[in-house]
Every structure is written in structure tokens, then in C-alpha cells.
Amino acid sequence: MTHYFATVARGLEPIAARELERLGAQGVEPDFTGVRFQGDRALLYRVNLWARTIFRVLAPIQEVKCANAEQLYKGVQRIDWEQYLQPHNTFSVRCTGGNTKLNHTHFTALQIKNAIVDQQRDRVGERSSIDRENPDLLLNAHIYQHRCILSLDSTGESLHRRGYRPAMGIAPLKETLAAALLELAEWTPDLPFLDPLCGSGTLPLEAGLKGLNIAPGQFRDRFAFENWVDFDAPLWQTLRQEAWDGEREALPAPIFGSDRDPKILHQARTNAQNCGLEKHIQLMEAELSEIEAPRDCGIIICNPPYGKRIGEIQELSALYKLLGDTFKQRFKGWTAYILTGNKELGKKVGLKASRRFPVYNGSIPCTLLKYELY
């Protein structure tokens, strides 16, 4: 069993932990903006392929002391880098954290890089090149106090960038947060789903992928672990084939998205085409005031503007009031959720929330408000 660390958005650690357990992870322990877990190589590949709520999976290889730059350099040099990197391979170092002596991530990365290439030159007379855009090996270094944890990044580009969404509206949700909101709302594919302010379509698209049991990693060209020395290509192909074989041909219940802006709705339709959902989810151009419940019951999730990035609070008060009025008058039997980063606007909905979930949308502290519509 190998130890791994999944990085996640702040506040979503418990949701990511449950997802990792469902994927077969052992020893799952939520941490701050991450989850520690254990598993074999197949689990590492499976998590990258299937995880909907995490950013990346790190495989820790060594912890070294780093009270200062010299100690860090010597500690990195004691690691046998031949087992991970050959001179013909490119690599890159990404640093997070710091201490009083190592408080600039670029300088810290440079010390680690120098220690690795100096070892290569001493041993074989050649050294690897740095490639910050598309390296063969991506090394993560996290410094906390006088300790530096060095990990191999198995993912590469963050998992929230699914690959299906080149078209984005104003202030879009990350795909990982959209997937987490579906979990918080306890939405299951047998329930109708609606986002009446869908923008470029992230929420209905994530619901559609889940409803059809499509692995989000299927849209990726490549993962970082495919460049590793011990990469098991047959195992990876088997896991991908199993994912393809497990996809559903039709949604168990309908998924709807609507928006008043035809240009933004066009973006949503483009994104739906990119992930093969254009025939499965229904995207409609409609004013919020015109929307009717498409079924007798279901789940609504929406992410209206907060007044921080788009518009002003006074202008948005009418929108929040309209949301509350529309839900109360036309969606009896449904359960609605509104994500907001503004408490004052949340009060304008005019309905009593049955639950409040604290979450972060990027750096913005938000609340997911739940409304039971009777």
C-alpha cells in the first residue's frame, strides 16, 4: 500500500474523503485542503480517472529537513533521483509553503532543481532540462516549518480542468465545486435536475456526467503518471476500458439548464457537445420569471452573482427576491439550493433555509442555502 495525498478546495475535504472511500481508498484522513489516503497503483490511476471533487493526487517520496537553503539542498541530494528521473527527461518543481529562511517559492524550487541536476552531473555527466509547460516529471515540494515533503505529482494539470470546457461564461464555477454541490444537495441521477441560471453550463454538465456514469478523466489527453518510470500501460488501458464499458446510454431522469443570455447559452451548448451531452441535457433560453417546473419534483441548484465580481448588491436584490418568489410559486415538491457569497443577498430570497453549508468558491467564503419547497 502506498501513501497518497489528494489536494482539494478548502471546505470540501469531507466530501472528497467520502469520494475517495467510494473509489476504494484505504486509511482515508481529511486534512486542511487535502485528504491523505492509501492504495495500490490501480487506485492511483482510478482516482485520477474518476475523482470529481479533487484537484490532484500527490505521491510523497521523501521528507527532508529544511531549516535553511543549504540543509534543503543537501537533503534533496541524498535522494536517489535515478529511480524517478533520467537525464533525457524534463522536469519541473512546484513549491508551496515556506519558513523564515525559505519564504520565496521560486528560490526554494531553484535550490531543489540545483540539487537534482548537480547529482545527475556528478553521476553521469548529463542533466535534465527544465520544462515548466509540459514536463516529463512534475515534482511538488511543500514546506512547513523545518520540514519539506517532496512528492511526485501524478495528475499534471488540475483535475478541475476536465478538458470539455473551453467556453466559459462570466465567473464560472470550477467543475470540482459543481460536483461537490451536487454531493451536498444529495442529488442522485434518478432525480430531475435544474439550474435556472446555468451560464456556461457547469452544473448541468457535471450532473450529466454523473448521471451517465462518465469518468471525467476520459476527456484528458494525458496524466502525469503516464510519464513515470513504473507506468503500467496495460493496467491503465484496462481501467479506461472498464470506464467506457460502464457508461450509461441514457439518463435515468432529465437534466435541465436555462439562461436568459443567448450568447452564454451558446457556450453551454458548445461545452455539452465537447463532452457528448448535447443530446442528453436540455438547455433552454428563458427568463427566470418565465420558468415553470418541468417535473413534479427534483433538485434545483443555482449560483447567482454575489455582488463581488459581477454587479452591485442593490441591483442584485431583485434577482434574489425573484428566485425566492419563483421557487415558492412554481416549484412545490422540489428542493432548491442557492450558492451565495453575500449574506445580505441571501436574505432577499425571502424563504427560510432548512440548512446552510459553508463552502468556498475560490477564495470567496460562501454558503449553500437549502430550501424545502412545500
From TrEMBL:
<feature type="domain" description="THUMP">
    <location>
        <begin position="43"/>
        <end position="154"/>
    </location>
</feature>
<dbReference type="Pfam" id="PF02926">
    <property type="entry name" value="THUMP"/>
</dbReference>
<dbReference type="InterPro" id="IPR054170">
    <property type="entry name" value="RlmL_1st"/>
</dbReference>
<dbReference type="Pfam" id="PF22020">
    <property type="entry name" value="RlmL_1st"/>
</dbReference>
<dbReference type="InterPro" id="IPR002052">
    <property type="entry name" value="DNA_methylase_N6_adenine_CS"/>
</dbReference>
<dbReference type="InterPro" id="IPR053943">
    <property type="entry name" value="RlmKL-like_Mtase_CS"/>
</dbReference>
<dbReference type="GO" id="GO:0008990">
    <property type="term" value="F:rRNA (guanine-N2-)-methyltransferase activity"/>
</dbReference>
<dbReference type="GO" id="GO:0003723">
    <property type="term" value="F:RNA binding"/>
</dbReference>
<dbReference type="Pfam" id="PF01170">
    <property type="entry name" value="UPF0020"/>
</dbReference>
<dbReference type="InterPro" id="IPR004114">
    <property type="entry name" value="THUMP_dom"/>
</dbReference>
<dbReference type="InterPro" id="IPR000241">
    <property type="entry name" value="RlmKL-like_Mtase"/>
</dbReference>
<dbReference type="InterPro" id="IPR029063">
    <property type="entry name" value="SAM-dependent_MTases_sf"/>
</dbReference>
<keyword id="KW-0808">Transferase</keyword>
<dbReference type="GO" id="GO:0070043">
    <property type="term" value="F:rRNA (guanine-N7-)-methyltransferase activity"/>
</dbReference>
<keyword id="KW-0489">Methyltransferase</keyword>
<protein>
    <submittedName>
        <fullName>RNA methyltransferase</fullName>
    </submittedName>
</protein>
<keyword id="KW-0694">RNA-binding</keyword>
